[in-house]
Amino acid sequence: MKKVTILALSAFLFAVSCTEAKADQVTTATEQTVAETAGQTFAIDTNASTVNWTATHKGGLNPRFGTTEASGTLAFENGQLIAGSLVSDINSLVTSPESVDPAMSDGKTSADLDAHLKSADFFDVEKYPSVKFDITKVEDLAAGTESKTVGANKTVSGNLTIKGKTVNVTFPAKVEVTENQASLESKFTINREDWGLAYGAEGDPKDWMISQGVDLELNIVGKK
């Protein structure tokens, strides 16, 4: 029995070590002053914009993924992103059915996972129906910086507020603007415990296996 346990642990550690990151790691800081809006303002097109999320068990195993809707604004001055506010409605959160196999999850479906994520164990949507991101600073991406976001050209910092707690995060992003449309794309990973989303960190071993890292993929389109 001990030999089997050791082999299982070795296999798990090997899986963790071989998992390739698919998103950039954010840099975190305390809450910062929000950048002032000026210049041209683009309203986020909710129908054309998405926030994709992916959560896994440790080692990148058993991924769950889905989407939430996004709204808000992006502000540009002299062709440069200077400010913006994004709001993600957690009531719109949907888990992709293809990421949940009831046969492998004690009969639970993607709809069951949606309900659990919206409960007090995680987002507690009755008290905190949305997640908000307010830009605090935008800089040119440093030369030679590698990013999982293809075409990344900026470093964006902003206050990310989840369940009433605000943490400033910084990540690479691809930002583009034309006369009538603007876009912001990024792939980054946050640690959910930074915002008090600690469900599964202790207790039942099967829940402890839930990774603390959550991948977010922003595909934001703003229009005049």
From TrEMBL:
* Keyword Phosphoprotein (UniProt): no
| Pfam families attached to this UniProt entry | YceI
Question: Which part of the chain is the Lipid/polyisoprenoid-binding YceI-like domain?
Answer: 41-223
Q: Which keywords appear in this protein's UniProt record, sorted alphabetically?
A: Signal
By its UniProt entry, which SMART domains does this protein fall under? Answer: YceI
Where is the signal peptide, in residue numbers? 1-23
| Name of the protein | Lipid/polyisoprenoid-binding YceI-like domain-containing protein
- The scientific name of the source species is Kaistella solincola
Q: What is the lineage of its organism?
A: Bacteria, Pseudomonadati, Bacteroidota, Flavobacteriia, Flavobacteriales
